[in-house]
Each structure stands twice: as C-alpha cells, then as structure tokens.
Model the fold of this input.
Amino acid sequence: MRGPWARCWLLTFLAALLAVAFLENLARRRGVQPSWSVGSESWGMEALDLEPDGIALLGSSRMLSGVEPELMSRKTGRRARQLAINATSMLPILEWLAEREDFSGIVVAEITSYLEFRAGGEWRATAERFKHDLGELRRSPARRVESLLSRFVQTRMACRSPGFHLLTPYRDRHGPGVRRLASLTVEGSRFTRLEFQDGDESLEETETGPEKAIPASRADLDELMNRFAAAARAIQRRGGRVVFLAMPTSGRVADGEERAFPRKEFWDRLAASTSPESIHFRDHPPLSSFSCPDGEHLSYEDALRFTRALAEVLKSAR
Amino acid sequence: MVFNSLLYALFFAAVFALDRLTKSWTLRKFYLLIASLLFYAAWCPPYIVLLLIPTVADWYAAKFIAATPRPGPRRAILIASLALNLGLLACFKYANFLWGTWAAVAQAAGFEVQAERLNILLPVGISFYTFATMSYTIDVYRREIVPARSFLDYALFVAFFPHLVAGPILRAGNFLPQCETERRADRDQIGWGLTLLTLGLFGKVVLADGILAPVADRIFAAQAAIGFAEGWIGTLAFAGQIFFDFAGYSSCAIGSALILGWQLPDNFRFPFAALGFADFWRRWHISLSTWLRDYLYVALRGSRRGTLRTYVNLMLTMLLGGLWHGASWKFVIWGGLQGALLVVEKMAQSVFRIDRFKEVFAGRLALWVGTFFLFTLTWPFFRADDLPSAFGMVESMLSPARAGVLGLSGLRVFTAMAIVAAMFALHGYMRNRSTESEWSRIPWPVRSVILTAMIVAIVLVPGDSRAFIYFQF
Done:
C-alpha cells in the first residue's frame, strides 16, 4: 500500500514514546513503583528454583501479600519461594508438589475457604494453567529468555505494574470500614507489597467475596478433602512437612466467610482429616492480633510482622 | 518463540538488520533459513529433527516423482511420502487419541485395558508444516509444479519462520517463485508490514488476551450448570477471542514476511460477515479450507459423483478438518457440525434457492445474523475442555429460563460484549472491502494516531503473554 510511511511511522514512534513517558511519569507521581507480575511466568521461575528442602508458600492473594519470602528464609534458615496465585485454589499446586519426588521441604499451604471449598472447578483452572506453563518454561529456551527479559522490563516500568492496572483483585473491596488501596508493588520474589490509605472510608455496600461463593456439595467436598489428604501424605512420606494455614481476616470479610464457610464444617474438618499441622490464626496469639485494612489482605508493615510471627510458630510447632 | 514477546522483537530486529546488510541473495536466503530453524528450536531444541525429517524426505520424494515417468513408482513414492507425514502426525499428535479410543472400545467390549495417557509432547506447528510439505509432493505428483531447483529454496519454503508454527499454510506454487528473483522490501511494504504487525499484536495482546480471554476462560472453566446469559457471554467472548487471536497471528505473520520482502497469502477475510457457511469457510482460515478443498474434497471427487456423494464428501472433509484442529472427539463433533451446516445449506440452496435472499437487504441481514448465530452455537465444542462441558454449555445457551450463577464483573462483561458487537458490525461493513483499501483512505496523520493508540495499549497491558491458540494444533 502506498503512502507517506516514513512520516507516518516517525510520528507514530515519537507519539508512542511520549505517551508512554507521560504515563510512566503519571504512574510514578501516583506512587506506583515498577513491579514484577504475579502471573505464570514469575510463578514458573520461582517454581523452577524451589530447592528440594526449601519452603513452598502456597495459597492465594492473602499469602502473596501476607508472607514475605526473603524474611521467612532468613528467619527459618531455608529458602522460601512465593508460589501463591491470585484468586485461585492452591490444591493443584499442592498436588504438583506431591508428585515432585525430589521435594521434601516445608509446604505452607494457605487456605482461603471460599476459594478452596466452593462449588465448580473454575477456581482451580488458573493453577492448572500455571502448572502447564511450567512444563513449557522447563523445555523452552525461548520461554526462559523471555521471562528474564520481561522481568528486566517490568521491574523498570511503573506504567506496566499491576498497581497501575485498574482491574486488579485488590481494588474490588468495598464496604463500610474498608480502606482503599494506595499502592501495589510485586517484588522480584513475587511478594505483593500493599499499602493502604489512612483512615476508614465508607464506600458502597456490596457483597464480599465469601458471601458470593456457593459451597461445594457434600460429595464434592468429600472428594476435595481426600485430595488434600492424599497430597499431604505423599509429601510427608518423603520426610516433608505440610502446614495448612488460615491467614488473618477481619470485619465483614471475616464475618461473611464464617457465615458462608463455617470454620467447623470446613477448616476444622480439613485439619482433622488431613492430619498434618494446621495453623488457624485465631488459635495462635502471636498471629491473631492482625487487622486487614480491606478485610483479607495485610498491609506491608503487618505482613513483615506476620512473617516473623509465623516463622516462630513454624519453628515451635516442629 | 511467539510474536507477542520481547524476544521476538529482538530476534526480528536482528534478522531484519542482517537481511538488509547482506548483498548476496543466496546468502540472505541462507540466513533466513538458519534464523527460521533457530526460531523453531527456541521452542524445544530436540524437536527440530521432526521438522527436518519431512523436509528432507519430501525433497527426495518430489525429485523422484518428477523424474519418473511410470505411474506405478510415482504413485508408490507419493504414498510413501504421505505415509511418512501422516505417520509423524499420528505418532505425535493423535497417538493418545487413537490409543484412548481403542481402549474405550475394548473396555466397552468387556476387555480389561488400561487407557493411560502416553507421555508425548505435541510438536508446535506440526499440523501446519506437515500440510505444507504434503501439498508440495502432491502438487509435483499432479504436475502442477516442478520440483524446486535448490534445496535451500525448498527448505526455506517449509521452515520460513513467519508461517512455520501457525500458518498461513503455504503452497510451494506461491512461495518458490518468490525465491527465484531477488527481493527486498520497499518503503511501502515495510510501512504496511509494520501496520499489519501492530494490528495483529493489538488484536492478540489487548483484545483477545486482555479483555476477551478472561471472560471466556472464567465461564468455560465453570463446572456448575451456568446460566443462559452466561453461556452466550462466554461463547461470544470466545468467538471474539479466537478471531483476534488467530487473525492477529496471521496478520503478524504476513506483516513480518512483508517487512522482509515476502508475500504470504491472506488467511482471514472478515469471516463474521459471512452470508452462509460456505461463505464463512471462504473467509475463515482460508489457507486451511482451500487446502482441504484442493487435497481432500477434490481427491474424493468433490461434487462430480452426484448429490448424495457430494454431501458425503463435504461431511468427510469437515470431519477430518475438525480432527486436524485437535486430537479429540469434541473437534470431530465440531467438524461434523460444520459439515452438517454445509450440507443443510446446500440442500436449502437446491430446494429454496436461498441465494435469492441475498438480493434484498432484509434477506442479507437474516442470512448474516443467522449464520453468526448458528456458528456461535458450535464454538463450545471447539473451546470446552471436554465433551460433557461442551454439551452443558450448549444446553445453557438453549435454556432461556436458566439463571446465572457466576457473579461476573459487570464492567468486564460489558467491555467484552461491546468488543464482540463492534467486531460483528465492522465485519458486516467490511464484507466487500479490504483492510488495505480502507486503510489507504485514512489520512496519514489519523493513521498515525490510531497506530500510536494501539502501541500504547500493547505496552500498557500488564501480565503474562499467552501462546496463540492455534499453536496447539
């Protein structure tokens, strides 16, 4: 096709460069820091690096923003890897670790009841995709180089940060007494650093995540419990530890979760039927004093305090 | 390596620079071949052998066929070549399907057979390059082309990286003549090639992966019985996703080749503008549908053996076309539905002469919407994880009273449906137009603004890059 292409593309490149520079500046002025992603690439890189005797941190966004892996490594003397995945069940990842014959380390498996025990399998689909992508990452030199390149670029561009993206799960929390998110930064270790605005805001009243979820049927729940137990047993047989963990929640989210997924019917049953160690934040005084600004995620400072406290509980439980 | 990656940007920049700096035409083709092999090996190095085996075998097969006047040996070599190509496909793509089907039949007959999956990795693009090399041997056998004079040209035809892993499926008759004369892209080709690359990446990264895939994935992953609206939203989102994904890939492939001075055939011509199913297949994945027509439908004698045989041939062609997409019964059913729609359309044409409806606006509108509606009903068999899920999705789409259960985000659904509606309307408008002709009517500063907006959107969309859907075929 004929046309003044040189002029057209020169203007395009300059305008695109200026627009991206403007957005980068805007993002930084809003306090957004360059940030790695919590997607399958960063997950795969961490999963490939998990040492056989290391600590695997599994769970959802509560774990991603609540346990700082480098601090956990220092406190426990074992390398901890953040393998949690946003808004998804961690069961497929626990099963993947169970199949990994060389792994005999510690699994800290965070249980978000409304993700693990809800009806339907869609909440496990993301984790299944991550597992599939890990195979690609393992055999494909292009995927590994791409992951490194992508980390290099993403950790330098604030405008590509999930914190600058409006559709992040952390931004969906509304309700009386809920504080708004001020910034979200994913560190190189995949730890998701959350900062909240000061003061409470009364925003529009909406249903919380747990209240929207429909619990699995009795038969499906039995099957899920069996899967948890089988995966935990496989890791324990090799000398590993599996610690199920209920992270702090507060306010309407905690109430909603208790109403929709009562502790007795779900958490207590899991703890009783799987036999590994289980840590519910309410049962351990050092873990029970935390408050989540949005109901289910810890702020950065609290995440550091929580990590230290959890490391102590893990050590004493042993 | 995928087009929507930083690695591809670096790779392509290096290939382009080397191509421009090299004077010798033979050396440039040699560099392109090496780059293409690297492009393939970057996915999984040992599997490069699977690309080289049919390349070398079909090179010698075609030479022998062309040099031998006697029909018997010619035919024998052709059959051997087809057996090798189809054998590789059977081993690496269909082994689990064949084994699983056999085990299911044996179990149904009362035998104790374990149907464990074989641990075979599907080589990326095997269906595409196998069809390309097969078409070369068949064309030489039919004396439609003469064998390539140079192995370098022929190997480049098979391995040329823009088309290698997801098409368009090349024909030797289109590509080899381009190897004869030296070519270098001029300013217009580079400008238009970059535009196609940008359009393709925008469709893939922003529309397909950023907006439509999350909605479609969420709904198709649901295992509970979903609602009527959810069924339609998920399927329509997938219709948009697969179009922008695959047409986006084709656009990137054609654009990349054009920047290097090579012409690849069109693969999409606004398929959702189709007035009927035959029309749809003339617009959707054109390189595959013409391949199936020329090498399967025609080989079965097409419509030359009477009406009933025509219907059978159509059905067989579409069943195998469905199976080409994936080793699963759900793809066979999807292909069967396409065949059935084509057969019914042919019957309706002979009884009611439905072509008459195209002469009036209301008739065209009815055919346009009707084609899209019926085609949409078949997508669940393409997208769902398994057959029960596909049937469940279709059931939801046909049950208006069924309430929603998923609690989807209103903003996401609205955006996804707005994009699907805009795509449908745009296809209707573009029915008898081409992207190139419409684009050329836009003043260059406006073009620049559109391209800038697309590039900024591509840069801003965070998150993981997904592989193109057709890589799995």
Summary: Chain B has a mean pLDDT of 91.
